[in-house]
Write a structure and sequence with these properties.
By secondary structure, this protein is α/β, with parallel strands linked by helices. The chain contains 17 helices and 16 strands.
Length: about 450
Amino acid sequence: MGSSPESIDLLIDAHWIIPVNPANCVLEDHSVAVRNGRIVAVLPRARAHAGYVATECVALPRHALIPGMVNLHTHAAMTLMRGIADEMPLAQWLQGRIWPLEAKHVSPQFVYDGTLLACAEMLRGGITCFNDMYFYPGDAARAALDTGMRAALGLIVIDVPSAYASDADDYLAKGLALRDELREQQLLSFCMAPHAPYSVSDETFARLITLAEELDLPLHMHVHETQDEIDRSLARHGMRPLERLRRLGLVGPNLIAVHAIHVSSEEIELLLQNGSSVAHCPSSDLKLANGFAPVAAMLAQGVNIGLGTDGSASNNRLDLFQEMRQAALLAKAVSTDARALPAHKALSMATLDGARALRLDHAIGSIEPGKFADLTAVEFTAPDMLPCYDPIAHIVYAAGRENVSHVWVAGRLLVEDRALKIAPKNDLEKLAILWQNRLSMETKA
């Protein structure tokens, strides 16, 4: 007699499973078995139904199942500023519009409401984890937990006072206290998040290095976003920002360099040799006219690159399907090589490579036994998704977030048939209109 079937919580049957690891693998008519929020097996459908008895079975007959996507850089609460500062270069955008608005309006409630709106948008677009950098990270954490989403919380540090903190020491103290309070939450992880080299002093960086190493946390920071940033660093410090960070000891495996647009071949080598990662945000880079990151060159050297949306105020969408396609097309155009950044690599950047940068690749980013069941289903039934010759290429070049049908985080169903399964307690439309009315008064003044 054969052994009895094992009991599990969830069995998902999909037409295609794209595990991301191994690369370029497409499993047809396979199933994912889930118990206690983790994947226990990925195997052919017939074997799955013979070997497991599930509390819940989900059939995805015309879908591809991919890992939940990882948004490697965003300012989630800035959804409340979506479209409030369009058609501006970065310096004017920041100093003339965003920073004055933040000074007047950012509060714990602003961050909670904005992050709640962001989580709803990201989940419906197949994003299951986001790496955040903003004020009041505890309120961002509350919004993420209330929607069941996974978040890497940036413990922001900047040498400018705000309603959240009075100085660098205050930012650090509040961030570390939050980490101590929430460190046992399974869905949360943490990063040190100094804003940028131009807004953080050498003295503050020295403290951050010690803490990042002591706590083994990623170091999430805007780096080389504009040429102006580099010119000002040369004038003030006599060196480019990355060189300053290198001398201070910040360029290492902890570093997630956000944007990294204006990097030389020597700086690419520096990032590679030190095991640093890059958060590539192509739509934001384009919208703010900051330039073209040499992504194909970085990938050719072996630099780990994940994808980020940046915030809604500089992108207007928290949409990693758009970022995958944008990244792949830009890499080809900038390098004049149609083979640069192939579809599977773009998908890996949106999933496993982002998880790797956050030191979470042991737990998420691919569909493998032992990892959390953070999963996104993409439906291939709409006319604009037909025919399909290569499901991986289709995910990157044809699909959009509107094709996402189901999303799970740690085995918990959060999106079903394109609708949020766990409705936020607050009415998101009313929240958005409330904040729009408040902020609109400032822009008309």
